[in-house]
Amino acid sequence: MSETVAIAGSGTIATGLAVTAARHSDVVLWARSEASAARAKAAIEKQAAKLKVDVTNVDVVTDLKQLGRGTIIIEAVVEDPSTKAVVLGEIITVAGPDAILASTTSSLSIEQLANATSAADRFVGLHVFNPVPKMQLVELVFPAAASESTKDRTRALCEQWEKIAVEVPDTPGFVVNKLLFPYLFSAVDLKQQTGLDAKAIDTCMTLGTGQPMGPFALLDFVGLDVSKAIGEVIGSPIPQELEDLVAEGKLGRKSGQGFLDWSR
């Protein structure tokens, strides 16, 4: 079947999903305010121009009821359990009886999110990676009650998006973040212990391991507030320097300052 993709959220993951889905489907993206909608529309158009994707089939709205047009409705709001629970609770009131409900959470329990919707049979964790149009992996997490139809349709959607879907267990952080963030935090600990600066450690890790980003550039790219939240969920000790930067509002690339200076 041809799916209509509805997305709740207006940030980087939400807009990246909109551009990705627009290649194959009609898309509805819901933002909570007119200002957020304007920013989301600008971000979608910027990505689309760069990737040469036609996004005339993407409808950016502020009326929550419009999410009901989706046959797959994807929650892509901030990585906070209470915020996600509220948004999912709102989505279930407008979703059609056969609509799949998905969450892009990168670390929270899919079973708990699914049970909060009273529609666990058509719920799925759909953890995509930033930048969404470029990154191939999707971590798929199905709650115990997920129907075979939900599984098949979600797998088909990932295939249509030309993504590689790996079904992973519902454990905090799934696979990627469970392994990644202890490494990232260990880089911060090393910096504190040795006095090496962040750029030097990043240079060692990019040139020495062939990674496209060093740990500090990656932390700043993800967002230090998001990184802190993920660390708390997976039970990885948060380095004090990261705690301090978040408290100061230095959140990485999105704020212009984190471990590195992104203001220029």
> How many E-type strands?
8
CATH topology of the largest domain: Rossmann fold
Describe the global form: globular
Computed over alpha carbons, the radius of gyration is: 19 Å
Query: What count of structural domains?
Result: 2
Which strand order do you get reading across the main beta sheet?
A: 3-2-1-4-5-6-7-8
Element order: H for helix, E for strand? EHEHEEHEHEEHEHHHHH
CATH top level of the largest domain?
Alpha Beta
**Which structural class should the secondary elements be placed in?**
alpha/beta
Tell me about the largest β-sheet. Answer: 8 strands, mixed
Pfam families: 3HCDH, 3HCDH_N
GO molecular function: 3-hydroxybutyryl-CoA dehydrogenase activity; NAD+ binding
Keywords: Oxidoreductase
Protein name: 3-hydroxybutyryl-CoA dehydrogenase
Layout: helices, strands, pairs:
Elements: E1 5-8, H1 12-22, E2 27-30, H2 34-51, E3 58-61, E4 72-75, H3 81-94, E5 100-103, H4 110-117, E6 123-128, E7 137-141, H5 148-160, E8 164-167, H6 176-194, H7 198-209, H8 215-222, H9 224-234, H10 240-247
Parallel strand pairs: 1-2, 1-4, 2-3, 4-5, 5-6, 7-8
Antiparallel strand pairs: 6-7
Explain how this protein is built:
The longest helix has 19 residues, at 176-194. The chain folds into 2 domains: 5-167, NAD(P)-binding Rossmann-like Domain (Rossmann fold); 175-255, N-(1-d-carboxylethyl)-l-norvaline Dehydrogenase, domain 2 (Orthogonal Bundle). Helices cover 46% and strands 13% of the residues. The mean pLDDT is 97. Helix 1 links the parallel strand 1 (5-8) and strand 2 (27-30). The chain has 264 residues and is α/β, with parallel strands linked by helices. The protein is globular and about 55 Å long. The chain has an 8-stranded mixed sheet, sandwiched between helices. The chain has helices at 12-22, 34-51, 81-94, 110-117, 148-160, 176-194, 198-209, 215-222, 224-234, 240-247; strands at 5-8, 27-30, 58-61, 72-75, 100-103, 123-128, 137-141, 164-167.
